[in-house]
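User: Structure tokens for both sequences below?

Assistant:
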Amino acid sequence: MTNQLLALLKLDLIMTGTHTIQPIECPYIITDNWHDAMTKAYTITRRTSHRKQWINALVYAFYMGKLIESSVTPREKWMEFVQRKSINNKRFIYMKATRTYQLFKTDLEQIYRTQHMTLKKIARLNNRDFKELLEFKESYEEDFVI
């Protein structure tokens, strides 16, 4: 990851704007069981990602990550899901979803203001760069959000 790209991703985390945001609906309903909800979230995340609808893919990955993180044993629950669905690239997809959730869990609407952020870029961050990005976001929130 280049320093320039990391700087652009940091900028995405603090980008502001006054334009109206048309929220994207959560792909599952609260009464769905975990497996059904994850199937819906995974399917639409994959579809929007293949269609290069980056904002939609980020939002749906956020909801996937939220489901994963809401589990008592997130990694085990995810592994159970991928084995039932025969999903390839399970580690990469897990990182996309959980990292997206971690980055935007305090402000989902920030996803709509991003310009450079994609699932692929999030997943390809090495652990050090991701930690730096997350710490940057947390520091910004502490310093500037009322």
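Moving on to the next sequence.
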Amino acid sequence: MIELRISNTAAVHLLVDRIEDEFRSRIKTGIYDKKLSLDDLPFSELFELAEIAAFDLVAILPYDALMKETNINEIVAKAIQSLTVIYQKEKFTAYTPEMAAALLISLKNIYKIADKEKLHLKN
């Protein structure tokens, strides 16, 4: 197993930055009102932003970090659990590595198809 070394503090910082970017993007497109803040969002919407942010961050990691056996699911789960303190939403503590794995399975499947079809050779 490849152990990815990133502190939870760094992972949470990256996650929060990406959540804020996604939130601002949704304000610009009119999905959310300009007067709204992240603290005003219900848990379900904040959770959606957190999962989108986690997916985006993992998608920019090197291929091996996702396709080989790593601790990425644990890193994602701990970072999302840590959002409990930042956003005062206790439900974040229930996030598990299995939930992170389910979130990332579609990305892994895309990588598997690309590898099988040798799409990287056509670029």
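User: Anything stand out in the second?

Assistant: The mean pLDDT is 92.
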